[in-house]
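Question:
When you can, review this sequence-structure pair and walk me through the C-alpha coordinates.
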Amino acid sequence: MTDLSEDGAEFPARRRGQGELENQVLAVLREASEPVPVAWVRERLGGGLAYTTVITILTRLRAKGAVERERDGRSFRWTAVADEAGLAALRMRKVLDAEADRQAVLASFVTALPPNEERLLRELLAQNAEEEEG
Protein backbone atom coordinates (compact mmCIF):
# COMPACT_ATOMS: atom_id res chain seq x y z
CA MET A 1 0.00 0.00 0.00
CA THR A 2 1.33 3.46 -0.88
CA ASP A 3 0.35 7.06 -0.22
CA LEU A 4 1.06 10.14 -2.27
CA SER A 5 2.99 13.15 -1.02
CA GLU A 6 1.91 16.71 -1.89
CA ASP A 7 4.07 16.64 -5.02
CA GLY A 8 2.56 13.33 -6.17
CA ALA A 9 5.52 11.13 -5.24
CA GLU A 10 4.65 7.72 -3.86
CA PHE A 11 5.87 6.52 -0.49
CA PRO A 12 4.91 3.53 1.64
CA ALA A 13 1.89 4.07 3.87
CA ARG A 14 2.76 4.54 7.54
CA ARG A 15 2.16 1.39 9.55
CA ARG A 16 -0.18 2.01 12.46
CA GLY A 17 0.88 1.24 16.01
CA GLN A 18 -0.72 -1.59 17.93
CA GLY A 19 -4.22 -0.56 18.94
CA GLU A 20 -4.14 2.68 16.95
CA LEU A 21 -6.72 1.54 14.40
CA GLU A 22 -8.96 0.19 17.17
CA ASN A 23 -8.81 3.58 18.89
CA GLN A 24 -9.65 5.33 15.60
CA VAL A 25 -12.65 3.04 15.03
CA LEU A 26 -13.90 3.68 18.56
CA ALA A 27 -13.54 7.43 18.08
CA VAL A 28 -15.56 7.27 14.86
CA LEU A 29 -18.27 5.16 16.50
CA ARG A 30 -18.55 7.60 19.40
CA GLU A 31 -19.34 10.36 16.89
CA ALA A 32 -22.43 8.46 15.76
CA SER A 33 -25.77 9.32 17.36
CA GLU A 34 -27.13 5.83 16.65
CA PRO A 35 -25.84 2.38 15.63
CA VAL A 36 -24.10 2.57 12.25
CA PRO A 37 -23.15 0.16 9.45
CA VAL A 38 -19.56 -0.81 8.59
CA ALA A 39 -19.65 1.36 5.46
CA TRP A 40 -20.35 4.45 7.58
CA VAL A 41 -17.36 3.67 9.82
CA ARG A 42 -15.11 2.95 6.83
CA GLU A 43 -16.05 6.19 5.09
CA ARG A 44 -15.20 8.29 8.14
CA LEU A 45 -11.89 6.53 8.72
CA GLY A 46 -10.63 7.49 5.28
CA GLY A 47 -7.30 6.19 4.11
CA GLY A 48 -8.74 3.57 1.79
CA LEU A 49 -9.11 0.78 4.35
CA ALA A 50 -10.63 -2.40 3.01
CA TYR A 51 -14.19 -3.16 4.10
CA THR A 52 -12.98 -6.49 5.51
CA THR A 53 -10.31 -4.72 7.57
CA VAL A 54 -12.94 -2.55 9.24
CA ILE A 55 -15.12 -5.61 9.92
CA THR A 56 -12.12 -7.40 11.44
CA ILE A 57 -11.37 -4.46 13.75
CA LEU A 58 -15.04 -4.20 14.78
CA THR A 59 -15.17 -7.94 15.46
CA ARG A 60 -12.03 -7.75 17.61
CA LEU A 61 -13.46 -4.78 19.51
CA ARG A 62 -16.67 -6.75 20.08
CA ALA A 63 -14.69 -9.68 21.47
CA LYS A 64 -13.04 -7.22 23.89
CA GLY A 65 -16.41 -5.83 24.95
CA ALA A 66 -15.72 -2.37 23.52
CA VAL A 67 -18.50 -2.38 20.88
CA GLU A 68 -21.90 -3.96 20.42
CA ARG A 69 -23.73 -4.89 17.27
CA GLU A 70 -27.36 -5.35 16.30
CA ARG A 71 -28.74 -7.22 13.33
CA ASP A 72 -29.85 -5.07 10.39
CA GLY A 73 -31.07 -7.34 7.61
CA ARG A 74 -28.12 -9.46 6.50
CA SER A 75 -25.53 -7.22 8.16
CA PHE A 76 -25.03 -5.37 11.46
CA ARG A 77 -25.05 -1.89 12.91
CA TRP A 78 -22.34 -1.08 15.43
CA THR A 79 -22.19 1.02 18.61
CA ALA A 80 -19.25 1.91 20.87
CA VAL A 81 -19.69 0.93 24.52
CA ALA A 82 -16.14 1.90 25.59
CA ASP A 83 -13.89 4.86 24.93
CA GLU A 84 -10.09 4.77 24.47
CA ALA A 85 -9.53 4.65 28.23
CA GLY A 86 -12.07 1.85 28.52
CA LEU A 87 -10.35 -0.09 25.75
CA ALA A 88 -6.96 0.31 27.46
CA ALA A 89 -8.54 -0.91 30.72
CA LEU A 90 -9.96 -3.95 28.90
CA ARG A 91 -6.48 -4.73 27.54
CA MET A 92 -4.95 -4.40 31.00
CA ARG A 93 -7.62 -6.67 32.46
CA LYS A 94 -6.97 -9.29 29.77
CA VAL A 95 -3.26 -9.31 30.60
CA LEU A 96 -3.99 -9.57 34.32
CA ASP A 97 -6.51 -12.38 33.77
CA ALA A 98 -3.85 -14.40 31.93
CA GLU A 99 -1.48 -14.38 34.91
CA ALA A 100 -1.48 -17.09 37.56
CA ASP A 101 -0.25 -14.88 40.43
CA ARG A 102 -2.48 -11.81 40.17
CA GLN A 103 -1.34 -10.45 43.53
CA ALA A 104 2.32 -10.48 42.46
CA VAL A 105 1.49 -8.80 39.15
CA LEU A 106 -0.58 -6.08 40.83
CA ALA A 107 2.06 -5.52 43.51
CA SER A 108 4.76 -5.21 40.87
CA PHE A 109 2.62 -2.83 38.86
CA VAL A 110 1.91 -0.56 41.83
CA THR A 111 5.51 -0.46 43.04
CA ALA A 112 6.67 0.52 39.54
CA LEU A 113 4.33 3.55 39.40
CA PRO A 114 5.74 7.04 39.91
CA PRO A 115 4.61 8.52 43.26
CA ASN A 116 2.01 10.83 41.71
CA GLU A 117 0.38 7.97 39.76
CA GLU A 118 0.44 5.69 42.82
CA ARG A 119 -1.29 8.46 44.78
CA LEU A 120 -3.89 8.81 42.02
CA LEU A 121 -4.51 5.07 42.01
CA ARG A 122 -5.01 5.08 45.79
CA GLU A 123 -7.45 8.00 45.50
CA LEU A 124 -9.42 6.20 42.78
CA LEU A 125 -9.56 3.01 44.84
CA ALA A 126 -10.77 4.95 47.89
CA GLN A 127 -13.38 6.73 45.78
CA ASN A 128 -14.55 3.41 44.35
CA ALA A 129 -14.81 1.90 47.86
CA GLU A 130 -16.91 4.87 49.03
CA GLU A 131 -19.26 4.51 46.04
CA GLU A 132 -19.72 0.79 46.76
CA GLU A 133 -20.56 1.52 50.41
CA GLY A 134 -23.00 4.34 49.69
Summary: The beta strands are 2-4, 10-12, 67-72, 75-80. Residues 127 and 133 are 10 Å apart (CA to CA). The radius of gyration is 19 Å.
